[in-house]
Amino acid sequence: MATTTSHATNTWINPKLSMPSSKEFGFASNSISLLKNQHNRKSLNINSSLQAPPILHFPKQSSNYQTPKTSTISHPIQENNNSSSISKWNLVQKAAAMALDAVEGALTKHELEHPLPKTADPRVQISGNFAPVPENPVCQSLPVTGKIPKCVQGVYVRNGANPLFEPTAGHHFFDGDGMVHAVQFKNGSASYACRFTETERLVQEKALGRPVFPKAIGELHGHSGIARLMLFYARGLFGLIDHSRGTGVANAGLVYFNNRLLAMSEDDLPYHVKVTPTGDLKTEGRFDFDGQLKSTMIAHPKLDPVSGELFALSYDVIQKPYLKYFRFSKNGEKSNDVEIPVEDPTMMHDFAITEKFVIIPDQQVVFKMSEMIRGGSPVVYDKNKVSRFGILDKYAKDGSDLKWVEVPDCFCFHLWNAWEEPETDEIVVIGSCMTPPDSIFNECDEGLKSVLSEIRLNLKTGKSTRKAIIENPDEQVNLEAGMVNRNKLGRKTQYAYLAIAEPWPKVSGFAKVDLFTGEVEKFIYGDNKYGGEPLFLPRDPNSKEEDDGYILAFVHDEKEWNSELQIVNAMTLKLEATVKLPSRVPYGFHGTFINANDLANQA
């Protein structure tokens, strides 16, 4: 039977001192809680649509807003016993830990003497249904309204950011620990489970009973960010932590490749997560493709539906080469790295493939670590840079034949598809162009827009064109997070299924967009209901109709404070079935579907 949801005030574990404390889950005297007693504090003066979004934009203007109720599952918090880790430390290590903790406490106190920007304020970033939840073991035989389609056999998995420990300083939504939510379907029945991806970072912090790894966006800005980096490496120098095994959170992407489900964020190697026969999730470990992968991999690798190969990028914000391209055969054999020449470390969240080419965006959001010395954020919108797209043969052995085509004033956080049109010597790229480009990370006055666009790259002239696919201004909406039929990735597609990110940054439904005509059909989740990325699941891989399939999406009711999985017919946009979930599912990032046959053949 499904468990029920109850309301409480906290879901995460309060951090502890590195040294034993009389209060198992109390704060150190030199730590400051930002979220403690959040129900008793004054309401935040932020717009109701600005509650820690998946793609974040926080205008400086504010309006009166009542903080929404938060919800948790009634459960005993599993205490993390850090005595075993500390007992292995020698006297020098224990003294170093105490000294570094004192420095960190003083640093945090100093930081909190000044208002945090909304892009780093946890009271904004993880409020409402962006707040974390505890793990939930498998719950079978969930209540279903309607009928689950027969073709839906397997497991839908979706990734998201879910901080284990309550933030004590700056925190951006992207900084949270990775948690995978899974709904397994068997013969018309459904089960649900959610588990943390046991990254090296999470394992070490659980052992210590507190967060010690710096948060890449929420903390690493200005002089305090430099100080936190120095603290981090000092702890490594004394052997208090081990950062040689990765620092990533694995909270963004999911891909099923070579019989493995891989959880990814671009700051680390992927993690192998196994789906058990009962529908539970188990982290197998950090996955380096049998020693072949020695660098990070972005969260959106591309799986070619015809060849079965996986194509990927890796970027480095410190040293050259700043950007590398590589691929894996369908059996998991890695190619040599191909250096992509870029002048500065570039934000590289996504890219695209066609049948013959890989399309690599080099856009205006770059990393400049020197900005931290000047007191700013290392993530910078370079207004003097002209965005461009690189076109490279998928099987190139080096970057000598890379062709760049400039696409001015274009920043696509996500690219939905691309294909070749030989009759015009063009490559067509479909993406959502966002303005301002850096509003995901930095506060700004301008309202964010995300416009679904068609970008044409002419291989013969080296010129580009760009236009909005939805030409009717009355139909124009912010479209972010979604996909095309993945069986046609890299090939010409007629439809895209994208989240309607309105009221920004919430997702009120999804749009089915005809990429040829600009026609838009909308499916709205319901009053006070919001979701995330819509996943398109083909009914039959061999179907002649591109839209013959179903849309799966997690949806949360902000009035009743419960969550569900909706299954929608992609051809008719009619709701086929609703699966009631036993616990709240926070708004998150990207997902995939693993069919029953693939589940049975996991590595």
TrEMBL record:
Task: Name the chain's protein.
Answer: 9-cis-epoxycarotenoid dioxygenase
Q: What is the main EC category here?
A: oxidoreductase
| UniProt keyword annotations, A-Z | Abscisic acid biosynthesis, Chloroplast, Dioxygenase, Iron, Metal-binding, Oxidoreductase, Plastid, Transit peptide
The entry's family comment says: Belongs to the carotenoid oxygenase family.
Q: Keyword Protein biosynthesis on this protein? A: no
Keyword Membrane present in the record's keywords: the answer is no
Known cofactor(s): Fe(2+)
Residues bound to Fe cation:
H300, H349, H414, H590
Which chemical reaction does it catalyze?
Answer: a 9-cis-epoxycarotenoid + O2 = a 12'-apo-carotenal + 2-cis,4-trans-xanthoxin; 9-cis-violaxanthin + O2 = (3S,5R,6S)-5,6-epoxy-3-hydroxy-5,6-dihydro-12'-apo-beta-caroten-12'-al + 2-cis,4-trans-xanthoxin; 9'-cis-neoxanthin + O2 = (3S,5R,6R)-3,5-dihydroxy-6,7-didehydro-5,6-dihydro-12'-apo-beta-caroten-12'-al + 2-cis,4-trans-xanthoxin
Q: What is the source species?
A: Solanum tuberosum
Q: Where are stretches of biased composition, namely Polar residues?
A: 60-79
Cellular compartments annotated: Plastid, Chloroplast
| Pfam family of the protein (one) | RPE65
What the entry lists under InterPro entries is as follows: Carotenoid_Oase
One of the protein's GO biological processes: abscisic acid biosynthetic process
Question: Known EC number(s)?
Answer: 1.13.11.51
- Any one GO CC term of the record: chloroplast
